Amino acid sequence: MGALLIRAKSHGFSKVLSRIFTFNYASLALCKKLGFREVGIYERHGQLNGKWLDVVIVEKLL
Predict the structure, then answer these.
(1) Residues β-bridged to residue 7
(2) In principle, which of 2, 23, 28, 52 could form an S-S bond with 44, CB 3.0–4.6 Å?
(3) Rg (the chain; Cα; Å)
(4) How far is the CA of 8 from the CAs of 2, 15, 18, 19, 50, in angstroms?
(5) What is the pLDDT along the chain (62 residues), one digit of tens a residue?
(6) CA distance 51 to 23
(7) Res 12: pLDDT
């Protein structure tokens, strides 16, 4: 992920964002460690096995 952020910046990107399931604590922790911040939640963003799931929106300004 660190290499991806470096490459994105070198290619002129100003920010990287992602959407992570609210229960994916490992990915949320990794993003926080790398300097991402939570900017919101998409409620009922998609279905998995017939159940609607929310996602956390995270971003990192480069």
Answers:
(1) none
(2) 52
(3) 13
(4) 10, 8, 14, 17, 35
(5) 999 999 999 999 999 999 999 999 999 999 999 999 999 999 999 999 999 999 999 999 99
(6) 14
(7) 97
The structure tokens 């290619």 sit at 11
Q: ∠ CA 20-22-26 to the nearest 5 degrees?
A: 70
Q: In this structure, which amino acid lies at residue 10?
A: S
Please answer whether residues 16 and 5 qualify as being in contact, where contact means their C-beta atoms are separated by less than 8 angstroms.
Answer: yes
Terminal-residue alpha carbon distance, the chain: 13
pLDDT of residue 17: 97
What's the pTM? 0.85
